[in-house]
Amino acid sequence: MACYSSRIPYGTPVTAEALAQIGRAERALRRLGLRQVRVRHHEQVARIEIDPAEFPRLLDGELRERLVAEVRAAGYAYVTLDLQGYRTGSLNGDMTRGWQRSSSITGTKRRPASVVPRQYRCSSMPSSVGRDQS
C-alpha cells in the first residue's frame, strides 16, 4: 500500500489538505475504471500517471471529460496526463536533476526538502488519511 506523500515532490510541504486532495482524485480515477493510477501533486496541477496500455481509453471523449471533471472536483485547477505512463518513484528523478531549481510546472522556487511533519508521516496516520486503499 503506497503512501500519498510519495505523490508530492521533494521540497513541497506535505499537508493534510494535499493528501486528501490526492486521495479524492485517485479514488475518482479508480471509480472510472483505471486500474494502475497515480496522481502526482504539483500544487494546482494533477499529473496523472496510468498504465500506457490504458491510454487509448482516454480517446473516448465522454470518459476524458468525466476524468477531468472528477479531478477538478478533487481540487485541482489543471489536469495533465504524463505520457511516460505509470512508473514507481517518478518523483525521485527530481533528486538527480537538481530539484532545488525553479519548478518547471508551477514556476515557483522550491525550498530544500524538509522532514515530513510527524502528523503527516504515513506510519502515524490512520489508513484512510494518507494511504492508498487499493
Explain the layout of strands and helices.
Blueprint: H1 16-31, E1 37-42, E2 45-50, H2 61-73, E3 78-81, H3 93-96, H4 127-130
Parallel strand pairs: 2-3
Antiparallel strand pairs: 1-2
Task: Note down, in words, how this protein is organized.
This protein has 134 residues and is α+β, with helices and mostly antiparallel strands. The chain has a domain at 17-88: Alpha-Beta Plaits (2-Layer Sandwich). The chain has helices at residues 16-31, 61-73, 93-96, 127-130, and strands at 37-42, 45-50, 78-81. The chain has a 3-stranded mixed beta sheet with strand order 1-2-3, with helices on one face. The relative contact order is 0.24.
Helix content: 25-40%
Number of helices: 4
Strand portion, in percent? 5-15%
Describe the strand arrangement of the main beta sheet, using strand numbers. Answer: 1-2-3
Fold-level CATH name of the domain at 17-88 = Alpha-Beta Plaits
Most strands sheet: 3 strands, mixed
**Count of individual beta strands:** 3
Low-pLDDT stretches = 95-104, 109-115
Averaging pLDDT over every residue, what do you get?
Answer: 79
Radius of gyration: 15 Å
**CA-to-CA gap between the ends?**
7 Å
**Rough shape?**
globular
